[in-house]
C-alpha cells in the first residue's frame, strides 16, 4: 500500500491541472478570455467563409472553437482529409457530419484558416475536373 500522497497525482491526471493553473497564472482571467474569444471568432469566420465559397455546408453553430463542415455532395470527405494531409494540413474526418471537423486552437490564426480554405478549393476543383 502506497499510503497517502500530497500534491498532484502522477503525470497523466495531474498534468492538465498543473497546466491549467500555470496558464491561468500567466495570462490571467482576462487574457484567457481574450484568447478563447479570438479562437471562437476565427471558428465562426471559417465556417461562414467555407459556406460562402460553396466548398462545404456549415453543420453546427458552435459554442466552443470546433467547427464542423459537411462536404456531402461536394467532395468525398475521406479523399479531402487524405489530400489535405499530403499538404501537411490536418483536419479530422467528421463522420457524423459527413465532412470535416476543424479545431481552432489558440495558435491557429485566420491566415492558417485561409490557407486551409484555399487548399480545399483547389482539391475540390481537381476532383470535379
Report the average pLDDT across residues.
89
Indicate the CATH class: Alpha Beta
Which structural category do the helix and sheet elements fall into?
alpha+beta
Helical residues, percent:
55-70%
Number of strands: 4
For this structure, the quaternary state is: single chain
> What is the assigned CATH homologous superfamily?
Aspartate Aminotransferase, domain 1
- The total domain count is 1
In short:
The protein has helices at 11-53, 77-86, 110-128, and strands at 57-58, 66-70, 92-94, 99-103.
Report on the architecture of this protein.
By secondary structure, the chain is α+β, with helices and mostly antiparallel strands. The protein has a single domain (37-128), classed as Aspartate Aminotransferase, domain 1, CATH 3.90.1150. The protein is built from 3 helices and 4 strands, in the order αββαββα. Strands 1-2-4-3 form a 4-stranded antiparallel β-sheet, with helices on one face. The longest helix has 43 residues, at 11-53.
Key attributes of the depicted protein:
129 residues, Aspartate Aminotransferase, domain 1, 3 helices, elongated
Amino acid at each position: 500500500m502506497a499510503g497517502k500522497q500530497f500534491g498532484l497525482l502522477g503525470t497523466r491526471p495531474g498534468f492538465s491541472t498543473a497546466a491549467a493553473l500555470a496558464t491561468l497564472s500567466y495570462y490571467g482571467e482576462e487574457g484567457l478570455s481574450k484568447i478563447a474569444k479570438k479562437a471562437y471568432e476565427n471558428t465562426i469566420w471559417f465556417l461562414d467563409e467555407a459556406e460562402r465559397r460553396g466548398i462545404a455546408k456549415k453543420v453546427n453553430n458552435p459554442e466552443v472553437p470546433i467547427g464542423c463542415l459537411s462536404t456531402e455532395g461536394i467532395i468525398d470527405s475521406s479523399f479531402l482529409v487524405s489530400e489535405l494531409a499530403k499538404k501537411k494540413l490536418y483536419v479530422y474526418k467528421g463522420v457524423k457530419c459527413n465532412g470535416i471537423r476543424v479545431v481552432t486552437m489558440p495558435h491557429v490564426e485566420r491566415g492558417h484558416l485561409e490557407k486551409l480554405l484555399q487548399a480545399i478549393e483547389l482539391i475540390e476543383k481537381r476532383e470535379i475536373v
